[in-house]
Amino acid sequence: MHTCSTGRAPARAASPLFAAAIGLITLLPLHAHAHAIAGDRVFPATMAVDDPGVGDEANLQFGHVRVPGDNGDQSVNTCDFDYDKLITSRLALSVGGTYVMQNNPTAHGFDNFDVGLKYLLYVNEPHEFMTSIGVDAEIGGTGSHAIADSFSTISPTVYIGKGMGDLPDSLAYLKPVAITGEFGPSLTTGAGQPNAFNYGFTVQYSLPYLEQHVHSVGLPQPFANLIPLVEIPLSRSQGQTTGTVNPGFIWINRYGQFGIEAQIPINRASGSHVGVLVQAHVFFDDVAPTTIGKPLFNW
């Protein structure tokens, strides 16, 4: 499980770590076999709409976005880290935090830290279907006073994923398509603070699936491991819908992935310029399945 806001940005202080993570991933073998698997389908760890699987993994994400502020537009850069630990093969605990840098007014510091649980509820291998349920809590008062809210936010969420590998052979070139989604309320503990309903979905076209399970067209690397996609994370509160449309791609192998997306605001309330998300992600359950990537309990 990973936690994403509408803005993630590169931070200079963390860029050497980010570069090292990308370097590690790109040196590993090129065989996609990540944690969120239903039949032949691999659902990648997407950046703005969480994938439907659970795993032992770490996510490092940066972003930049311009959003409306009290004194006009403000630029927001963020550095997000999230770590998921498998308690059992179906249950994962997550912890995460985000360092925020903004102007107008100028402020920087950590946002509230969050914890979560996610349970893999059902997998249908032949139909490449997967669903999970989870709850995430942003703990009020744990971040910087200049950035974070004093109240907490609780977000129970349902996650789904469906691959199209069960389509008839006459539609063979649509089989690499997959759709994922999430939805659930975001409930605040602060008096007078508005609640929200968060939802979103992704549409993906897996070139590794095309090469391995439909028809090899002889794509060279790195294209044979690319998953072009569009993510659409949305939120509705007080009668206003905000969100972005995020076209991009993910390069994936067995041990991790690298991704980049644009963030295109759907309206003025969602932002004034196109933002960017950049991700490096490591699957510990594949990197070290008998040590740090092993579930705590074999239930």
Write the layout of secondary structure elements.
Elements (H helix, E strand, L loop, with lengths): L14 H13 L9 E2 L2 E2 L14 E13 L2 E15 L4 E12 L4 E4 L3 E11 L4 E10 L14 E11 L13 E12 L7 E10 L1 H8 L11 E12 L2 E13 L3 E10 L9 E9 H4 L12
Antiparallel strand pairs: 1-2, 3-4, 3-15, 4-5, 5-6, 5-7, 7-8, 8-9, 9-10, 10-11, 11-12, 12-13, 13-14, 14-15
Short description:
The chain has 3 helices and 15 strands.
**Strand fraction:** over 45%
| Average pLDDT over all residues | 89
CATH superfamily: monomeric porin ompg
Give the overall silhouette: globular
Strand order, sheet with most strands: 3-4-5-7-8-9-10-11-12-13-14-15
Number of structural units classed as domains: 1
As for the CATH topology, it is Porin
What's the β-strand tally? 15
Q: Which value, in Å, is the CA radius of gyration?
A: 19 Å
Label the structural class. Answer: mainly beta
CATH architecture title: Beta Barrel
Tally of helical segments: 3
State the low-pLDDT regions, or none. 1-34
By CATH reckoning, the class would read Mainly Beta
User: What's the order of the H and E elements?
Assistant: HEEEEEEEEEEEHEEEEH
Q: Which labels suit this protein?
A:
globular, single chain, Porin, disordered N terminus, mainly beta, two-stranded antiparallel ribbon, twelve-stranded antiparallel barrel, 299 residues
